[in-house]
Amino acid sequence: MISVKFFAMLKNLTKAEAKQYNIEGTITLEELKGMLKKDFPALEGVFASRSVFISVNQEFADKNTVIKDGDEIGLLPPFSGG
Amino acid sequence: MPELVRIQRENFSIEAEMENVKKASKGIGAVVTFLGTGRDNSKGFEISGLDFEHYPGMAENKLKDIRERALKNFNIIEMGIVHRIGNIDVGEDIVLIVAASAHRNDAFMACEWAITELKRTTPIWKRETTKTGDVWVSETP
User: Fold this and answer.
1) What is the number of structural domains in chain A?
2) Domain extent at residue B58
């Protein structure tokens, strides 16, 4: 099982704090986005505008990142600390 | 001695944080600080309060990473970073960066770099309370 955590305005948008998925083997970031868009259609625009970072096990993911069972995914809107 | 890099709800003492950094070495001859505070306005709207959320674990690690890279890439002796989360009133302190070096220029450069890097890489989000409701801030300059 993987856990996807939502933060800040993405919690409002999805009306959820987290979502768990059972996966077999590994999946790509694009496959994960597809799963999320199916469950949370409001994320379609977020992914299209690229105004979101994705972390895997608390490290920034890139297009080559592979997601495996047990991973913690973060859906991170643009930061505004400081 | 408190950790040099922390995220906490409670307020911090600028003087205590500076002293904490100065303990690193008697070779310190310059201390530069950046203090971020809560403004009462944003993009033309009146702000009555702020609320900061972070990604526990990842945010702390990103701040520690900023300190380590600052120590590696700038000629500084020590750096401290404290960021608050939770509800913060207008006028209260939000974030403090303390850079210490032998000479002032290195501390100025490291401090400016660190706050810019914090805004770029650290998963912390600000929500502003206005008269018309709460607004998540997507990016800050």
Assistant:
1) 1
2) 5-137
Tens digit of pLDDT for each residue in A35-65?
Answer: 999 999 999 999 998 889 999 999 999 989 9
| Exposure of A13 in the CB half-sphere (CA atoms within 13 A) | 23
Instruction: Considering only the beta carbons, identify the residue of B94, B119, B127 that sits closest to A79.
Output: B119
- The answer to whether residue B56 neighbours chain A at the CB level (below 8 Å) is no
Assign residue A67 the CATH number of its domain: 3.10.20.30
Is ipTM over 0.85? yes
The domain that holds B91 is classified in CATH as 3.90.1170.40
Give residue A52's domain range.
2-76
Instruction: Write out pLDDT tens, residues B15-33.
Output: 999 999 999 999 999 999 9
Given an 8 Å threshold on Cβ–Cβ distance, is B140 in contact with A74? no
Q: Within its chain, how far is the Cα of B122 from the centroid?
A: 10
Do B80 and B4 contact (CB within 8 A), yes or no? Answer: yes
Cα distances (angstroms) measured from residue A48 to each of A25, A30, A51? 27, 12, 8
Among the partner residues A58, A78, A81, nearest to B138 by beta-carbon distance: A78
Burial class (CB in 10 A: 0-12, 13-18, 19+), B112: middle
The domain tally of chain B equals 1
